[in-house]
From TrEMBL:
SUPFAM superfamilies: Fumarate reductase respiratory complex transmembrane subunits. The chain crosses the membrane at residues 55-80, 101-122, 155-176, 197-218. It comes from Chryseobacterium profundimaris. The keyword Membrane applies. Keywords: Membrane, Transmembrane, Transmembrane helix. This is Succinate dehydrogenase / fumarate reductase cytochrome b subunit.
Length: 220
């Protein structure tokens, strides 16, 4: 890992791999959460499996936490190095014509998404860790759906989630194709396919999470 992150190209490659891992995780996370819309039992069963499976809890969960931290830390490091490499802004440069606003401000959207992740962990992950390992309460299969449903009873929380997922969508809109480009997946034949997939991914994934939040709010 140290060798991979010792150069700018290596850091971009490592960041792209962590991004692709997180892209896959978002699909899985949305799939499980969507079950809460179709019925409490389905969501409770899936959540109990995810919450008490040793492989998921003690292998996949630490890997996920590391990937999140690594991805955002590496993003900030690359941004700082890029800024240092361009200390002078040329008057002839017109960034709005050369790149999109989001591609120039990934660090801003990334910082907001990171702040949202901490809120999301406070709402669910810390609560879960406290329930299982601090209070040591017994397994209660029916609690998962109720906990999720109760979190979206307040309009202000739903609004924060909606805004955060919109920014996530903007972040994904550039990050999806950029990740594949960084690992060398760039070719006239399949680059348009990757860009099209990235566009739909950046719309459907955030829209799915927003739909879940609104659903639980209006069905209180």
């Amino acid at each position: 890992m140290a060798g991979l992150t010792s150069s700018t190209i290596g850091r971009k490659y490592a960041m792209a791999l962590s991004a692709i891992f997180l892209l896959i995780f978002l699909v899985m996370h949305l799939s499980v959460n969507l079950l809460s819309v179709f019925g409490a039992d389905a969501y409770n069963n899936a959540s109990q499996f995810m919450g008490y499976n040793p492989l998921i809890q003690f292998v996949m969960q630490p890997v996920l936490i590391f990937a999140v931290i690594f991805h955002f830390v590496m993003g900030f490091v690359l941004e700082i190095k890029n800024q240092k490499a361009r200390p002078v802004k040329y008057e002839a440069n017109n960034p709005s014509h050369n790149s999109t606003w989001m591609s120039r401000n990934m660090i801003i959207s990334g910082a907001v998404v990171l702040a949202f992740i901490f809120l999301h962990m406070y709402d669910f992950w810390f609560h879960e860790m406290n329930y299982k390992y601090v209070d040591g309460l017994p397994i209660e299969e029916s609690r998962f759906w109720g906990d999720l449903h109760a979190k979206f009873a307040d309009a202000w929380r739903v609004i924060i989630y909606i805004i955060s997922f919109i920014l996530l969508g903007l972040h994904l809109g550039h990050g999806f194709q950029s990740s594949f480009q960084s690992i060398g997946a760039r070719h006239p034949k399949y680059t348009p396919v990757i860009m099209a997939l990235g566009k739909w991914y950046s719309i459907l994934i955030p829209a799915g999470f927003i739909f879940i939040a609104i659903y639980h709010f209006v069905t209180q």
